[in-house]
Amino acid sequence: MTEYLSSRPLTSSASAAYDYLSKVSNLPRYFPRITSAELRGEEEEVTTTAVLDGEDVGSESRQVTVTGQAWFQTDHHARSITWGAEGPHDHHGSLTVAETPDGALLSITLHTTADYPGVQDSLEETLDSISDGLT
What we know:
Layout: E1 2-10, H1 14-21, H2 27-30, E2 34-40, E3 42-53, E4 63-75, E5 80-85, E6 91-100, E7 103-112, H3 119-133
Antiparallel strand pairs: 1-7, 2-3, 3-4, 4-5, 5-6, 6-7
């Protein structure tokens, strides 16, 4: 299993950042490939739609739209979010927001058995989107 890590200081408070990130409806705003995310009855079940590079999912098409089921768990006390999706690559991760003297530190971890090129760049792109969304 491969683990990808990244972190970024934020100028917003940890509480404000966590409030934004913990809302499922905001997932398409900060995960660039996700185009929609909806709760499915229970808080932890989410239906997501994403646009992926075709080669990453074994397609000859340039881009592929996929819809899937995922879980999304929040821990307000720890200001952390964990998520994952069942499938062939055991894709799951966590996001934590910690208070710092200058604002907050956002850390994101992704675990997967897949080894796609550009995963680390995608994490950085996600952190850019989060930073932009909080300003």
